[in-house]
Amino acid sequence: MRDESIFDLDELNEECGVFGIIGHADAAQLTYYGLHALQHRGQESAGIVTTDGQKFSVQRGTGLVTEVFNNNNIKQLLGSTGIGHVRYSTTGGTGLANAQPLVFKYAKGELAIATKGNLVNAKKLRRDLEELGSIFQTTTDTEVIAHLIARSSAPNIVEAAKEALNQLVGAYALMIMTNDTLIVAEDPHGLRPLSMAKMGEATVFSSETCAFDVIGAEFVRDIEPGEMLVFDAEGMRTTTFAPKAERAICSFEHVYFARPDSNVGGVNVHAARKRMGRILAEEAPVEADVVTGVPDSSTSAAIGFAEATGIPYELGLIKNRYVGRTFIQPSQELREQGVKMKLSAVRGVVAGKRVVMVDDSIVRGTTSRRIVTMLREAGATEVHVRISSPPVKNPCFYGIDTPDREQLIAAQKTVEEIRQEIGADTLTFISVEGMLRAIGRPASERNRGHCIACFTGEYPTVLEDELVLEGKR
User: Which parts of the sequence belong to the Glutamine amidotransferase type-2 domain (predicted)?
Assistant: First the structure.
C-alpha cells in the first residue's frame, strides 16, 4: 500500500503502468520483468493475468512487484499471452479489490482489463450503468469499461470494445484480453503513451520503452491516438475506434514520470531533461559555485544547467535508496522532518558554497522548503532554486495525482511569494515555451503535441461539470 505518512507530501504521482505480451512461451516471466522496469509508475499493487487459450491464470497483490510475485506463483501463470499492471491510485481506493488487471466473467466468457490514465466522465457513466442494473465490485474507472463491454449487444469483443471506448472521455492506454483475443488501444489524444516492440515472433507492449530494453525486445513504434490493435486467430490487424484528435502527450512524462532511459513520443527522456536544464540556464543565469539536482528525476536537468553555465555539477544531495515504505506512523513533528529520511545534503560539497538547486516541479512547496533549509543547515551560503517545469497552477484530471487547486502553491502565490515561502535566494521556473522547445518534438502540432493543462488551464478534452463542482478547479 502507498505510504501516506511522509513520502507523498509534495510529489506528483502518475497512475499506473501497463505491460503486455502475446506469442511467447515465457509470457508470465517476461511480464514480471517488464513490470519491474515500470515499478516507478506505481507501488501500491501489481498483477499479471495470462491465458493459454482456454482459461485465465491470475496473480495479483498489494505491494511491490518483488513482493507480489515469486518463483512459485509465476510458474502457475500459464500461457503465451499475458497482461500486467502496476498501480498508483488517483481514483478509487487502495487495496486488493482495485488491483489490476481486473478479471470478469460475463455471458461471452472471461475478460481481463489493464488500464492507465483517468476518465473524466467515469462517475457519470457509473451512475448511468447502476441505474441500468450494473453492480460494481471496485471503485476504479477500469470496471466502468468492463461493464460497458459486457452490456454491449455487439457481435464480438472487438466491436464491443470499440462501442465502449467511444463512450469514454479522458486519458487512457489499455489492454483488453479474452482467451482468444488481445486488444490494445490508446485514447484519441494520446495523453498516456504506449509503445510496441517485437521479440522474435512475440509482440510486446509497454507504458515505457525502458521495459523493452530489460527483456531484449526491439522497439517498433508508438501506438497512435485513437488506434486499436487486435490480435486473434486471424493474426494482427490495426484499426481505429475514434477519429484521431489533437495529440496531447502529457508533458510531465518528459519532465518527471518516465525513466531517463525511456523514449516518449520519439524523444529520449534524459536528453530532453538535459535540454530543460540548458534552457533554464539561458532563461535564468546566476552566479554560483556548484549545481546540484534533487535525485533522481532532476539529475539530468541539473547536468544540463551545469554544462550550459560552466558551474561544476556535484552530488550535493544524496537519496536514501533503502527507505522503501514505512509502517511506522510518525507524529506531525516527525512528519515535518520526513524528507530527511529520503534525502541528505553533502556538507563537504555545499558548505561555504553558493548552490543552484535544480528540481523538476513545485507542487505544495513543502518539500522545496525543507530541501532549501537542509542545504542551508549543511552550510550553503546561498541557495538558488531552478525548476525545470513551469508553475503547476491547475489540477490534472487525466491520471496525475495533483491536489485541488487551492493546495497548489503556484495557483495561490506569485513566484516571488513562493521564493519567500521556500526560503530561496532566487527562484525561477522554466517557461512553457522553453519546456516544449527542450522536449524537442516537432513544432507543427499545437503545443508540440503535448498537454500543458496543469500549467495553462487549457484542457484537451471537455471536463465533466461535477469535477469542477468538487473543487478541483
Answer: 16-234
254-472: same fold as 17-245? no
The predicted-structure confidence for 304-336, as pLDDT tens digits, reads as follows: 999 999 999 999 999 887 655 444 444 545 555
> Contact at 8 Å (CB) between 155 and 136?
no
pTM: 0.91
Report the catalytic residues.
Answer: 16
Based on its alpha-carbon atoms, the radius of gyration of the chain, rounded to whole angstroms, reads 22
Rounded to 10 deg, the angle between the 269-283 and 432-439 helix axes is 140
* Class of CATH domain 254-472: alpha beta
Check whether 454 is labelled as a binding-site residue: yes
| Alpha-carbon torsion angle 378, 379, 385, 388, nearest 10 | -50
The ranges assigned to domains in the chain are 17-245, 254-472
**Do residues 287 and 472 make contact, with C-beta atoms less than 8 angstroms apart?**
no
Q: Looking at the domain 17-245, which fold is it? A: Glutamine Phosphoribosylpyrophosphate, subunit 1, domain 1 (3.60.20)
- Distances 173 to 71, 150, 203, 364, 434 between C-alpha atoms, Å: 29, 19, 17, 28, 28
Q: Is 210 annotated as a binding residue?
A: no
Annotated binding residue 389? no
Q: Is beta strand 382-387 parallel, antiparallel or unpaired with respect to 317-319?
A: unpaired
